[in-house]
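Good day; I would like, with your permission, to put a structural problem before you. A protein sequence and the structure tokens that stand for its backbone fold form the material at issue. Thank you for your consideration; the sequence and its tokens are set out here:
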Amino acid sequence: MTPVLEVSGLVKRYGDRAVLGGVDLTVDEHEVVTLIGASGSGKSTLLRCVDLLEEIDDGRILLDGTDVSDPRADAAAARKRMGVVFQAYNLFPHMTARRNVALAPRVVHGVGAAEADARAEELLGRVGLDGFADAYPDRMSGGQQQRVAIARALAVRPRLLLLDEITSALDPELVGEVLEIVRELARDGVTILMATHEMGFARSVADRVCFLDGGVVREEGPPSQVLGDPADERTRRFLARIIAAGRLG
């Protein structure tokens, strides 16, 4: 079966500095793959390259077997098939939750207003925000705003959902409510590639964990192996620091 996402030999440089030095990665349908690693290891850059927000210097990015990184490919069409949620919520402050979620289906995908609004309300309910359709972002908590951002990403019915450290800007008491939404999406079979520093979450939800270090995937495998019995010395050192900080979960 063709993977939903296949990244091979991906290189991304900023000047003379290689942020990604030849990344190989696959994500199969209905699979949840988590990216772990220290700050600066390349996790966010990798997600931005997959979403074609960054031009790559070498390698290929295949979405359902099609090379979307080819300069001749229609990048806008490829992005329509992916949903992305960043660390910052990036909601439009002058729009209600309903309008934020319905905007992309209407403007990008040509969905009618009534259908887009109905879908938005359905998704807001799915992420636990029944009754918040008419609320503006400044009247919502950080966790609620991030859940609106997740609903917005799902509104385009993405083939692949990309999540970039979506709890890093949240107060600790709000982290759990957002991660529970991702757990539910995983149970529903949504295909997810997610960068996270929440090791306990990665252990309980991921099908595979990929450890990035120095812009390459140093180790990957089931959570029980990578987090419980890592083979690579750099993985072991990284997890030792996480354990010392009390964040392994």
Notes: The first helix runs from residue 43 to 50.
